[in-house]
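Entry details:
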Amino acid sequence: MKKTITALAILFTLIACEKTTQTKEFKTAYIDTSKLMEESIEAKDIEAKYKEKSKTMGTQLEAEVNRWKSEAANFQKNAQANGQAWAQQKGAELQKREQQLSYAQEGILRQLQQESGAELDSLVTSYKKEIKQYGKEKGYDYIYGTGESNSVLFAKENYDITKEIIKIVNDKYKSTDNKEEKTEKKEEQKK
């Protein structure tokens, strides 16, 4: 009886050791994506480029705003002297120019955001390629991203289940779509 218990204990130990040696350890790492963008020279250069461009465009707009302010100040001084009809006409012109300046400022901001956004998106794409290449060269199974957006930045292709999930959701959508069509046909036949 003791021999049987000892033999079973040895057998269980061997099985446990075999399972331990068969389990694969994954090599993983992470990247603080916020820090990457903050400390990237290329990202800093892009930021500096658009700060300078903003300053240049802002200077031009600021000159127009100063001219408008000067005209508005003169308008208030001359309004009573030139009469009500002149004041209404000039006031409408000043309001129109103020609105145009506001639209111009919004347009400049939108343009700068679009241009810088496109460049930063391109930069992020190139960084993802670099991270993927680095992961392959260093033998990583996963590289995770932390920071403002958490995501997997690299994974071996055999861990990708995207195609399977797409098939599941597409099949589900098709079956729902077919059920709706059958229901519509039955309702039409009843009429």
